[in-house]
Amino acid sequence: MMNYKKAVTKVLGLVLAVILALIIAGVGYLLYQSLFNHDISKDNFCTQEVKECLDGSFVGRNSSNNCEFKTCPIQNNSNNNSS
To answer: Which residues, in sequence order, are CB contacts of 73 under 8 Å at separation 6+?
Structure first.
């Protein structure tokens, strides 16, 4: 009877150790994925150039539009005197 209890205790200890190791490995994997495996291909970085508009203002590049320059403000020509 004593050998049976020792065997059960050893098996139970081994099962608990394997479960604990799996939990630790799972938590480690999730931490690694969230901290170190950032998919940089989803980020879009543009150069820091600017374009001068006709009105003298400057616009930069738009990272959500394939790094094209942002549109210049519409110039209001109503102040021009044609007379």
So the answer is: 53, 55, 57
Please report the DSSP string for the chain in residue order: -HHHHHHHHHHHHHHHHHHHHHHHHHHHHHHHHHHH---GGG--------EE-TTS-EE-EETTTTTEEPPPPPP--TT----
Q: Is 60 exposed, middle or buried (0-12, 13-18, 19+ CB in 10 A)?
A: middle
The token pair that represents 7 in the structure block: 């065997």
Band of pLDDT at residue 69, cut at 50, 70 and 90: very high
pLDDT tens track for 45-60: 888 889 999 999 999 9
